Structure formats: C-alpha cells, structure tokens
Amino acid sequence: xxxxxFASDNYSGVCPEAWQAMMVANDGYxxxxxxxIWTAKACDALRDFFETDCQVFFxxxxxxxxxxxxxxxxxxxxxxxxxxxxHVETDECGAVEFFSNxxxxxxxxxxxxxxxxxxxxxxxxxxxxxxxPKPKVLSITQATELGTVYSIDELQAVGExxxxxxxxxxxxxxxxxxxxxxxxxxxxxxxxKAGVDVLTFGGTKNGMPVGEAVVFFDKSLAEEFDYxxxxxxxxxxxxxxxxxPWVGMLExxxxxxxxxxxxxxxxxxxxxxxxxxxxxxxxxxxxxxVFVQMPETLVEALHAAGxxxxxxxxxxxxxxxxxxxxxxDDILQFGTELKKLAASL
Length: 345
Ligand SMILES: *Cc1c(COP(=O)(O)O)cnc(C)c1O
Fold this sequence. Notes:
Layout: H1 16-25, H2 37-50, E1 55-59, H3 62-71, E2 78-83, H4 87-90, H5 95-99, E3 104-108, H6 117-125, E4 134-141, H7 152-164, E5 168-173, H8 176-183, H9 187-190, E6 198-202, E7 212-216, H10 225-231, H11 240-251, H12 254-274, E8 280-281, E9 289-293, H13 296-304, E10 318-321, H14 328-343
Helix pairs in contact: 1-11, 2-11, 8-12, 12-14
The structure holds pyridoxal-5'-phosphate (PLP).
C-alpha cells in the first residue's frame, strides 16, 4: 500500500481519460498559444457543461487562476472579502495581492469553512469613507477548504448578498466537481444561476496532469484577461495539452465520475477512522476530505508507521484526502492497520 495516498488529492496521478485525451491531441502539429482546435473544443465543452455562453481561459495552476481572476474584478484600492481559511488567503503566498497590485483581502469567519453572511455585511457596511479599501469582490470556495459544501440555498443566499452589496462574486472551484457530485444538480445551478461571475474550475485535483480553467460568466469582466495571463507567465504555448484533458473528461463525464468516486471513498475512510476510540470528526464529510481529531499519540504512531497526512490545514487536526485514484480495498486495509495501531498504544 502506498502510504502517501491520503496526503492530498494532488498526490494522485493522471487519470486514464485525461492521459488518453492528451495522446489523441499529440498527433502532429497544432497552432500554439491557444489558437488550436483542442482549446476551441475545450471552451465549447465548458460552455455546454455550464449551459451558457461563458468565456474560458486556461492557467497552469489554481493560484494563478484564482489571483488573475480576482485581479480582473477589482482595482488596487478595492478589497476582496473571503473566509479566513480561504486558499486565496492562507495558501497562495500573497499572489492575489501581487497580481492585483495591492488589493487588500479582508477576512470574515464562518462555520464549516463557509462565509458568515452577517460578517460580510458588517465588513462592507462598517465604513464608507475614503480611507477604507472599498469592498468590491466576494470570494467563496466550493467545495470548501474544510471539505464541506455550500447547499444550493446557501449559494443563492450568497449570490443575493453579493448583489445587495454590489460585490462581484468569485468562486474558487479547485474542488468544484466534488461539490457538484455531492449536490447532484446541473453545474449552472451552482454558478451563474446563483450569481457567480467568475469560477476558477479545478482540473488538477480531479485527475488532470496540470491546469485549471477560468470561467467568466459575465463576459464583460474578461476584457483583456488574455493579456493578464500572458504577463503572468500563464499563457501556455502548447496550450493543447492543457485543453485536451478537459475535452476528453467532459465528453466522457469523467470529472463527475472521478469526483463521485473520491467523495464515496472519503465517506468510507471516515467510517474507518471513526471506528477507532478517541477519533472524532471535525467537519461534515461532504466532499473528498476527512478532518478528524485524534490523540497525539495516534498521530505520531501513524506518522512513524509511514502514513503521510497533514495536520496544519484548515482548522488544524488531521486531514485525509481521497481522489479518483483511491481504492476502497486500500481504505479498508488502512482501517484494519489503524485499529491495530491504536490498540497497541
Ligand atoms: C489546491 C487548491 C487550489 C490550487 O492550488 P495550486 O497549488 O496553486 O494549484 C486553490 N484553491 C483551493 C481551495 C485548493 O485546495
């Protein structure tokens, strides 16, 4: 058993459908910098997927996709409101401030990794003078950093909140497919129909080798976004290799299949973990993450036995991730080993 399997969903490899799509796209010559048939097909496939005429770009990773998308929504004297555990705030090394030339990020709290609407209102309304960085964008993460999922009702409320305060709405969808698989509704319901202006749509953690899509539902916001990508070093010259996995995976329904599998595995993994005395669940398991609190001795014993998992993410404690590559048998075997280990302490 590979003891790295729960460390992160980006420890997984490339899924067969993405690999196959890249092989198909690898035939002969193709125009560069996105002027190729694969990029055109991927954009069309995403428009079909979202059932709307959105504008699509591809970036190498989520940090770039998030920060360039957010930078396109505001000016340097504006502010972006997000959860204090948002990836944008905690895991992107200040990229959004950098690419937006200093736009301030204002943090709000909220249970289960979801923004507290009252805190957003307070942040917007507490000041209206010229000395305060003008709130311009609300950024939420779906599925959240804590492995929870905003329900449709919650999303609609967030959309209305943003509209009420005249904030643009950005969604960090590094694990958007996991949320989609959980809610079982069309992608449109989770995005533009709920008021999302821009989505950064994760491919990597779902099974692609590299690449995230930036999807503008409000096309007016995408003006000159291609220049932003180029300047930031995010315009792939052999763009077909970023685009082709989207074509193959959307055609075959792989994004949802992979996400549903990862989510199912996380539920199974949670059962195994909770089977052990002293292990408690930190957050609801609604996507592909399991956060548990466990005795420090057990954390140490697992680490000593070679199991790799992080304990500093989100609100701390132990995080275990599943992916398209997770195997139910491995999870059951881990459960057996965990029980034995816990009994020996
Ligand atoms: C992984 C992740 C990203 C993207 O991170 P990169 O390492 O830059 O690709 C963005 N947002 C969330 C919530 C993530 O988990």
